Structures are given as C-alpha cells and as structure tokens.
Amino acid sequence: MVRCVLIEDEPLARKGIEDHLKQIPFINLLASYENAMEALSFLMANEVDLVLSDINMPGINGIEFLKSLAKPPLFVFITGRGDYAAESYELEGFDFILKPYSFERLLKSMTRVATALSKKEVLARTRITSGKFAIKDKYRNHLVPYKQILYFEGEKEYVRIVTTEKDYVIIGSLKKIAEELTQDIFIRVHKSYIINRDYVRAIDPDKILMRGSIKDIPLGVTYRDEVYRELLNNK
C-alpha cells in the first residue's frame, strides 16, 4: 500500500481527488489538508510514502513546501499552473499532473509511484558509511567501497550506481546523495551524474573522459567552472 497525504485548498477539488484515490486499491489516503502547514506536523510524526499537493495555496505554496522538507517523500503535484512544471522536476518531483485531469491520468501516476516503491530489485533506502556506500534491500545489505564506485547516474526517480563489479539501481535522489558523499572523492559534473575523481582521464569542454572502458560522462555548463577548479586546480 502507498501511504499518501493530500494537500488541496479548494474544497471541491480536494473532494474530487479524495474520491478518485479511494477507487485505487493500492492507495491508502492517510490524511487530507487544505494547506501545507497543517500537513507538516502529520508528515513529521508519521511514515508517508507520497504527498499529492496543489501548488497555489494560501501561505506556503506546494513548491516552497517541498523545498522546506529535509527528507521529503515522493511528491506528485496536481495543479492548474503549467508554468511550474520545469521547477517541480528540477526539485525532483515525481510527477506533475495538470488540471483538469482525468482519472486515467491519476491512475497512471499512482501506478508509477507504487511500482517505484515496491520494485524488488530497487533498493528503498541508502546510507553513507565511513569509506563505503551502504545499500540496503529486503534481503541483503551491500557495502560498496568508495574506490569501487565509478559514477552515479540519475534516472528520474532512480539512481544507477555503476561500480567495478556490478550496477545497482535504487530509488533515490541524486541531489541528496551528492550532499552526503565525500567531496574529496566524488564530484557532481552534470545534473544527472556524480563521478569518482580517481577515474577521470581528461576533461573536454562538454564531457569527462573516464579511464579504461568507462563511458564518457557529459559535463554540464553549470558545473563546468567548479569541475575545472576542482580537478585542474585552477584557482
């Protein structure tokens, strides 16, 4: 079951979404609120897998609310403001549903959420330990030394961890992983890539050439100056 919280300030819209969610057997709507601040205390006290949220609301809006959460659950925005779509995906929102929406569109989104949360080979949680990246699934804990990790690649709601031995795929945020990794070993070079510095062979204006048979990694424009400064010691 997907444990869900709804935030919607319009009473009719909130009732309509509630009715739709009740028709989806794998969605458990735990609570429904008319603004983000009312939902905050519930999120802090309970395990929640998903927040369905409007964007334009009194007080703090949906985008600001997502930004304020240190460890947010998956977020699906349901809104009439299409101009927020790009920002929601930059914040790694899981989905963006534009009003008016169909039940089929909501069902498709909720099915994707359920798949992401329950897929057996995808690891639900990760944590960083000293010198190792710890990956936990329901069967086994994998401890991968930093030196064996070639790069991390963000793929929508997943992160692919490419190592010298095998690849792992986890549910997660590249942004959150970047905040926890040891910065003297890893560096973010693109919105979708974090690489191990030790495997860099050369730097082109638009890509990182890696050692051996590792594929070339794109170099994002917004990361280029930092990459040059950090890897080439250009102060």
Describe this protein with a few key phrases.
single chain; 235 residues; alpha/beta; Rossmann fold; OB fold (Dihydrolipoamide Acetyltransferase, E2P); 2 domains; 7 helices; 16 strands
What does this structure look like?
The strands form four sheets. The protein has a five-stranded parallel β-sheet, with helices on both faces. A five-stranded antiparallel β-sheet has the order 11-10-9-13-12. It has helices at residues 11-22, 36-45, 62-68, 85-90, 103-118, 174-180, 221-232, and strands at residues 2-7, 27-33, 50-53, 74-79, 95-98, 125-129, 132-136, 141-145, 149-155, 158-163, 167-171, 186-190, 193-196, 200-204, 207-210, 217-218. The protein has 235 residues and is an alpha/beta fold. Strand 6 and strand 7 form a beta hairpin. Mean pLDDT is 85; it is low at 120-129. It has two domains: 2-118, Rossmann fold (3-Layer(aba) Sandwich); 125-232, OB fold (Dihydrolipoamide Acetyltransferase, E2P) (Beta Barrel). The protein is built from seven helices and 16 strands. It starts with a strand and ends with a helix.
